């Protein structure tokens, strides 16, 4: 195995660029994954991994997790602890880094009876990662993102999603187009609002539905609320006016996917 000692190495530069620049990820069709567990998830989900960068200590410490990663890697390069610290997007990097091929985008397979969450302009990477992980855990059929939402392959999103980005169908496009398609198959679409006269969250239908959640600060646009045609709210006691986007999405997903009625799969 070749060992890298210089920060000017082309693979070090390539990894840094993918880790920090959304445009670079889009143009190259690649993204940077950090950490033994995340890299393992990418390998087990069948992603192409052209390059792996790993420290000697990580090879020993995470041997079982790295087995599928090293088997899937096109090339494996060793890096020093100093280089790992420079590459890491976390305070204490594990010393495992991979350059992965972004999965090909496929048209969304929207079906009657499906359970979908639509996100409008969710720009906080931590929130998006948490929502992706929750949607995967509760068994949502797909996540539908507006074009201006955060990049699913940004480091903070990947960390928050804990590998769910590789498993959950996620599609990006104009929300009005998604909503129109859902309406065409007679699937009810609800806009999450603070309107207390709207349907309470526990009355979401059993036979499948979609719920739209808005930006962390502004909520859903009036145009999206109108297009959905129905509204849902989360009743709250006390003086709290609203919940954060990630927390609200989790509650809506719990009801949407039937977990509170014992209809969901698995133990959550």
The gross shape turns out to be: elongated
Calculate Rg over CA atoms: 20 Å
**Strand tally, please?**
12
CATH topology annotation of the largest domain? Alpha/beta knot
Average per-residue pLDDT, rounded, comes to: 92
Broad CATH class of the largest domain: Alpha Beta
Major sheet description: 7 strands, parallel
Task: Name the CATH homologous superfamily of the largest domain.
Answer: SPOUT methyltransferase, trefoil knot domain
Number of domains: 2
Order of helices and strands: EHHEHEHHEHEEHEHEHEEEHEH
The appropriate CATH architecture of the largest domain is 3-Layer(aba) Sandwich
Please, could you describe this protein's structure?
- With 268 residues, the protein is α/β, with parallel strands linked by helices.
- The protein folds into 2 domains: 2-101, 2-Layer Sandwich (60s Ribosomal Protein L30, Chain: A); 115-261, Alpha/beta knot.
- Helix content is 37%, strand content 20%.
- The chain has 11 helices and 12 strands.
- The strands form 2 sheets. The protein has a 7-stranded parallel sheet with strand order 8-7-6-11-9-12-10, sandwiched between helices. A 5-stranded mixed sheet has the order 1-4-3-5-2, with helices on both faces.
- Helix 7 (125-138) links the parallel strand 6 and strand 7.
